[in-house]
Amino acid sequence: YYPVMIVLNLTERDYPIGQREHLMERAIEVAGSLLFFFVSLKQEVGIITTGAISGNDRPPSEPARAGVGHAIGILEMLARVTAGKEPTDFTRHVLESGVPIPTGAKVLVVTPPTSEAQNESLIALRRRGHDVQVFIVSTHQPPEEDVAVPGIRSHAVRAYGS
Hints:
The chain has 162 residues and is an alpha/beta fold. It contains five helices and six strands; from the N terminus they run E-H-E-E-H-H-E-H-E-H-E. It has a six-stranded mixed beta sheet, with helices on both faces. Strand 1 (4-8), helix 1 and strand 2 form a beta-alpha-beta unit. The radius of gyration is 14 Å and the shape is globular. The mean pLDDT is 86.
């Protein structure tokens, strides 16, 4: 048993302009897939995102809880979320969101390729005792060095396919 926090980077400036909409939609799909995979294992799941929902002044987030009802609420949020226009560093936002990350939680980060500063923040999160994994969303097969975050399990998510 371990709680799962999905971190969904929807910061507009982190995505390439020409593929922004497509890649953000893919990132949302990946977050939804991860959500239901872990809910099917009866895990508590929460989400922290840098996206925006019309009418809300804060990026939407949910603490880790169990149950299909909670997961459906997160899916409804994902259906309404759009790009975050503020130039928010998603790694800092995780720590400043006010959403508690339970000790020993699995933190699954869905993002386009990360910067060196973002990688350092992810490593710092791992040092706090969390199992951090990164899902890199891209339209092409990124080079190994663009997928690898030193010391963190990283996965390439292509635009199409499994």
